[in-house]
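Format notes (please read before filing issues)

Several people have asked whether sequences and structure tokens are stored in separate files. They are not. Every record keeps both together, in the order shown below: the sequence lines, then the token lines. Line labels are part of the format and must not be stripped during preprocessing.
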Amino acid sequence: MSHKISIYTDGAASGNPGPGGYGIVLISGNIRKELSQGFKCTTNNRMELLAVIVALEALKHDNCDVKVYTDSKYVADAVEKGWVFEWENKRFKKKKNSDLWNRFLKVYRKNNVSFFWVKGHADNNENNRCDKLAVEASQGINLFIDEGYKSESPLHINGFN
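Then the structure lines:
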């Protein structure tokens, strides 16, 4: 039996880079789960992608039919237009967020995943809920460190931020 799952995701970063977070709503039948996490310094694109990764990693079964709804063109287009597979073939040379894209590809290939772009801050209640979760997470007190984020700032590289 194939499980049918709807995933809604959003990412946020204040300052971009700056404090960030992701929000996720997973729905399977009458089961609903919400997830969120905040980070000290990251980017919006990293949070958008990390939301999808964490959501897919949270699935209890493989070979699920998964529909991912995101307001991130960066994520949706990279997959649906096949760019990420070209980047992978080139070992992500000169591509940002390669740590997350590699992590994404491992979990993506375990399921039948389709992406659907939704307009952000519009009439999609689940996307709006994810946005609220992401923003609240980014404003939390116990923010995590985004270990894969590499700023181009010399201060960040030297560990002064």
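For reference, the curators noted about this record: The chain has one domain: 4-143. Residues 4-143 form a domain with the Nucleotidyltransferase; domain 5 fold (CATH 3.30.420.10).
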